[in-house]
Design brief:
An eleven-stranded mixed β-sheet has the order 11-12-8-7-1-2-3-6-4-19-20, with helices on both faces. Strands 5, 14, 15, 16, 17 and 18 form a six-stranded antiparallel β-sheet that branches. The chain is globular, with a radius of gyration of 25 Å. It folds into three domains: 328 residues, no CATH class; 86 residues, no CATH class; 153 residues, no CATH class. The N and C termini lie far apart (54 Å). It has 635 residues and is α+β, with helices and mostly antiparallel strands. The chain contains 16 helices and 26 strands. This is DUF1446 domain-containing protein. InterPro entries: AtuA-like_ferredoxin_dom, AtuA_N. It comes from Aquibium carbonis. Pfam families: AtuA, AtuA_ferredoxin.
Length: 635
């Protein structure tokens, strides 16, 4: 029988429930427990923690809430643990963990992966005039953290050396899964298809319950949100794997839930650039092989680039935000007028005190479909939540803003109530600056049992052209306005109904009907810095050409014109029968640099589900594929 390795992911972010690791350890039958705690924002938070206390700078929950209560069971079941909980201080994380092991009375070997922290190289990069890889901007004067996205081979080396627990700093998220697979199956640096498959497995698992039915478009199909099953991958040496979850837990593992996770936060699916491999996931295939069991195959790969992506975070002033409720007739109009008045009053008083005006401001009337822009259809709702956010270089200036919010309760709109959280305290704005650095200049090492092991990096010839880093692409299929308009005005070609799109299309003279995209597609959205990502997947192959025809990059850019400041890219995803969209400069700066209520684009796919799509009118007739679609809901 072919040997399989069972890997469970117990955390998709810092703040995930500790019930995940406990569930997997006690009921998952796993060989490896992996946990992903880091994001760009998290790195800057951890850097601030370390600056205040030298023994901090790591995800403390991993030690106190996960390993302390589970250490004995992990040791008894010989489960090995891999995590990036080390943040910006993996040595401190190790020391705290070893102290817990002593208290509990277990003897587990802990390894630390180092090399990602490049804070000591900042001035050298500045002298080299390193530029931001997307915008071309110069390196900022003040830096909070600088970390390279390392790959999986240092993790594999730590496991080879006998480590029971491997703690890393910044590695690419999927590396915490790929590392154990390299160790278990002996995959080498030149086995690109296998490295791509292992990376895909890591990508599928890394966000925890997102692949087991969490944040799924068809949410009514998912039961048991109160006890969601965390994901397990049963991995084989040929790179294939089956996604599942512990028996008896809530959630759902289907081809659709897995597909939505695969498209999450990916750019060009033919060229997803990772530290160990340039992955091609465009031909990935999903097969339902049992209840809550999906087999994943078809990943391909090519040589990696000769550079690491480096994420630098830096402070850029302060922000403050407040929310309040406004009820009654014309609630949305009253809310907007209230916001404008608060901003005008506070800015006038700021200037009187010698400050400049706001560097940025945001008004969102939640409940009036603000996030839908010109596509809003909420009408005259009678209850909204007003959110005001501002940014300024001076923390003291924003104290004026905080002070001048509450007077609105007696001087502005009737029905104003429910101020949330009292006076808002200014918070630092942290921005992301990404650049490329040669791998040859960034050595990685592993420390285990007092021994230090240097880990080499396999790089291609220096001819490799620049890339856009993790999840980026060197060459993207850009659609021009001329192409967009030509596609939008022409009916789908017969070829789309055959080789390219699957299914049949109506002749040009057949009547058409308009339905919202959700009738024929599902999807998920996320972020890469200031780039919004939306993956759209056809519910049936015959729908694909009609989705292609409607969702041109030009049309999507118009639909999201209230958000997008850059270009829109569309990538074909034939294996999953869908598309991937990148909305450049679409998140208002992204992360905590954004003043939006949805700074990470989590709602973008849901907003796009109401995108109007023309389909053959007879599809809505009795016996047609959309006969159950409520025609009253059509756009």
């Amino acid at each position: 029988m072919t040997r399989t390795v069972r890997i469970g992911c117990g955390a998709g972010f810092w703040g995930d429930t500790p019930e995940g690791p406990a569930q997997l350890v006690r009921a998952g039958g796993i060989d490896y427990l992996v946990m992903d705690y880091l994001a760009e924002i998290t790195m800057s938070i951890l850097a601030r923690m370390k600056a205040k206390r030298a023994d901090l700078g790591y995800a403390t929950d991993f030690v106190t809430m996960v390993m302390k209560p589970l250490a004995r069971e992990i040791a008894d079941k010989r489960i090995r643990v891999v995590t990036n909980a080390g943040g910006v201080n993996p040595d401190a994380c190790r020391d705290a963990l070893l102290a817990v092991f002593r208290d509990v009375g277990v003897d587990l070997k802990v390894a630390v992966v180092r090399g990602d922290d490049l804070s000591g190289q900042v001035e050298r990069y500045r002298e080299q005039d390193v530029r931001e890889m997307f915008s071309g901007a110069a390196m900022p004067a003040n830096v909070a953290s600088v970390n390279a996205y390392l790959g999986a081979f240092p993790i594999a080396a730590a496991l080879d050396a006998g480590a029971d627990v491997v703690i890393t700093g910044r590695v690419v998220d999927s590396a915490v899964v790929l590392g154990p697979l390299i160790h278990e199956f002996g995959w080498g640096p030149s086995q690109h298809d296998l490295l791509s498959a292992g990376s895909l497995c890591g990508h599928v698992l890394e966000c925890g319950t997102q692949v087991t039915g969490g944040i799924f478009t068809d949410w009514r199909e998912v039961s048991g949100w109160d006890d969601m099953g965390f994901p397990i991958a049963e991995c084989s040496a040929d790179g294939s794997f089956v996604v599942t979850k512990p028996a008896g837990t809530g959630g759902l593992v289907s081809t659709k839930t897995v597909a939505e996770q695969i498209v999450y936060e990916v750019g060009d699916p033919t060229r997803y650039v990772l530290p160990d491999v340039t992955a091609d996931w465009s031909a990935v295939r999903l097969e339902q092989v049992g209840s809550d069991r999906v087999k994943v195959t078809g990943a391909r790969g090519a040589a990696p680039t000769d550079s690491y992506k480096v994420s630098l975070t830096y402070p850029d002033g302060y922000r403050a935000a407040v929310t309040m409720m406004i009820a009654g007739r014309e609630a949305a109009a009253k809310a907007r007028a209230t916001a404008e008045a608060i901003l005008a009053r506070s800015e006038r008083l700021m200037k009187a005190a010698g400050f400049e005006g706001y560097s940025d401001r945001s008004i969102e009337v939640l409940g009036s479909e603000t996030n839908y822009g010109e596509n809003a259809r909420a009408g005259d709702t009678r209850e909204v939540v007003l959110k005001i956010a501002v940014r300024h270089a001076s923390k003291d200036a924003l104290q004026v803003f905080g002070r001048e919010i509450f007077p609105a309760a007696t001087s502005m709109a009737q029905g104003l109530t429910g101020f949330a959280g009292g006076r808002p305290e200014p918070q630092p704005v942290i921005r992301l600056f990404s650049f490329l650095a040669p791998k040859i200049e960034i050595p990685a090492e592993v420390e285990v049992d007092g021994r230090t092991i240097e880990v080499g990096v396999a790089t291609p010839p220096p001819r490799t052209p620049p890339h856009k880093g993790e999840g980026g692409s060197e060459t993207s299929r850009l659609f021009t306005s001329t192409e967009d308009e030509a596609q939008a005005s022409a009916p789908p070609s017969p070829l789309w109904g055959g080789i390219e799109g699957g299914g049949s299309v109506a002749p040009p003279h057949d009547p058409l009907a308009t339905v919202p995209l959700i009738a024929i597609a599902h999807g998920r959205s996320g972020d890469k810095g200031d780039i919004g990502n939306i993956g759209i997947l056809a519910r049936k192959p015959q729908y694909l050409p009609w989705i292609r025809r409607a969702t041109t990059p030009q049309a999507v850019a118009r639909y999201f014109a209230h958000f997008v400041r850059g270009e829109v890219e569309r990538f074909e995803w034939p294996g999953l029968e869908g598309f991937n969209f990148l909305l450049h400069q679409g998140l208002g700066g992204g992360g905590i640099a954004s003043l939006r209520h949805d700074p990470q684009g989590k709602a973008l796919a849901q907003i796009m589900m109401d995108f109007p799509v023309q389909v053959p009118a007879h599809w809505l007739d009795a016996g047609g594929p959309l006969e159950d679609w409520n025609k009253d809901e059509t756009a």
